[in-house]
Automatic annotation (TrEMBL):
Descriptive protein name: Glutamine--fructose-6-phosphate aminotransferase [isomerizing]
Catalysis performed (reactions): D-fructose 6-phosphate + L-glutamine = D-glucosamine 6-phosphate + L-glutamate
Residues included from the entire protein: 260 to 611 of 611
Catalytic residue positions: 347 (for fru-6p isomerization activity)
Subunit structure: Homodimer.
Keyword field contains Acyltransferase: no
Enzyme Commission code(s) on record: 2.6.1.16
Top-level taxonomy: Archaea, Methanobacteriati, Methanobacteriota, Stenosarchaea group, Halobacteria
Length: 352
């Protein structure tokens, strides 16, 4: 059952601390210096291609960033577009990110990858799923069953599992810090859930005409995911952009009726540039909701702030996403939508 929550989605959002703990359990050594994952062996790919759909595609975009930062060429493809991908070369690994392990587009891309001679891996929540059975390797995200059609906790667990995968198979810079960031996440997500202003923000903007989400670097996939969640469960127009792309077109749509959610983490170059983009939308009178750890001066240009605890940029993506999940959830609730079973959508999409 829903354990007292109004919807499975809210229950599953609140299950994230536990899901994240399960994902890490037994996979990090005692010193917090290395990961040790069943079934990875001594895999060290010279290149990685990710294939996935929907929310899992957003997780895969993030996964490829982790590899590229470790100096390993990595690309992400929509599974349904994999036919246009270059062939995997050398010791390439093709990773299908699929919560259900049954998504037809993803299964088909993985089969194509195998046909092209690549080694394949499923990053999945479902033991014994088709993807897990057909791939050479399976990495389980261990989020537990997800009933809500809109993915929530599985996205957080995918991000954590992809960090473990990168740590276990690539020369990730400063692994101890990344591991420490992952270990802090369950407690930080809990603190955020206990003290979020997301329902007040949702109520304030629930009648808006459209919603935009922006972020850069690790926060760009979070912006895309924030928009997808908003569309799926509120039926309202929402779009996610790389923050830098706003001025290349989407800015034409920005008005006082289009709240812009900006994810700004840290106080470095990336944050400074995103704050610059935020100033541009603020100048067009758009309401700005900053999702931030408070280290930049974005709050000066924001109408509302959704705080996240300070951590590493990779881990911050999980935290920022939780705030955006809550905003979508409470917006949909305020609008009286069918949150756990949105119209036209199915939990597992088994046709191409
Ligand atoms: C969005 C959502 C879908 C799935 C997509 C892939 O909330 O749930 O976009 O992420 O259909 O599903 P899996 O991960 O099962 O391959």
């Amino acid at each position: 059952g829903k354990s007292g929550y109004d919807h499975f989605m809210l229950k599953e959002i609140h299950e994230q601390p536990r899901a994240l703990r399960q994902c890490l359990r037994g996979r990090v050594d005692e010193l917090g210096a290395a990961v040790d994952i069943e079934d990875l062996g001594d895999l060290s790919p010279t290149g990685v291609q990710f294939v996935a759909c929907g929310t899992s595609y957003h997780a895969a975009l993030y996964g490829a960033q982790l590899y590229r930062r470790a100096g390993i060429p990595a690309q992400t493809f929509l599974a349904s577009e994999y036919a246009t991908a270059p062939p995997p070369i050398g010791d390439a690994l093709v990773v299908g990110v699929t919560q259900s392990g049954e998504t037809a587009d993803t299964l088909s891309a993985l089969r194509e990858a195998r046909h092209r001679g690549a080694r394949t891996m499923a990053v999945t929540n479902t033991v014994g799923s088709t993807a897990a059975r057909e791939c050479d390797h399976a990495l389980y995200i261990r989020a537990g069953p997800e009933i809500g059609v809109a993915a929530s906790k599985t996205f957080a667990s995918q991000l954590a599992a992809l960090n473990l995968l990168a740590l276990g198979t690539a020369p990730v810079d400063r692994p101890r810090e990344t591991i420490a960031g992952l270990r802090d996440l369950p407690g930080q997500v809990q603190a955020l859930l206990d003290d979020s202003r997301a329902s007040a923000v949702a109520e304030q903007y629930q009648d808006a005409g459209a919603y935009f989400f922006v972020g850069r670097g690790h926060q760009y996939p979070v912006a895309l995911e924030g928009a997808l969640k908003m569309k799926e469960i509120t039926y309202k127009h929402a779009e996610g952009f790389a923050a830098g792309e706003l001025k290349h077109g989407p800015l034409a749509l920005v008005t006082d009726d289009t709240p812009v959610f900006a994810v700004v983490v840290g106080d470095g170059e990336q944050a400074r540039k995103t704050v610059g983009n935020v100033k541009e939308v603020e100048a067009r009178d758009a309401p700005v909701v900053a999702v931030t750890d408070g280290r930049s001066d974005v709050e000066r240009y924001a109408d509302e702030v959704l705080e996240i605890p300070e951590t590493h940029p990779e881990a911050a993506a999980v935290l920022a996403n939780v705030q955006l999940q809550l905003v979508s959830y409470y917006t949909a609730k305020g609008l009286g939508r069918s949150i756990d079973k949105p119209r036209n959508l199915a939990k597992s999409v088994t046709v191409e």
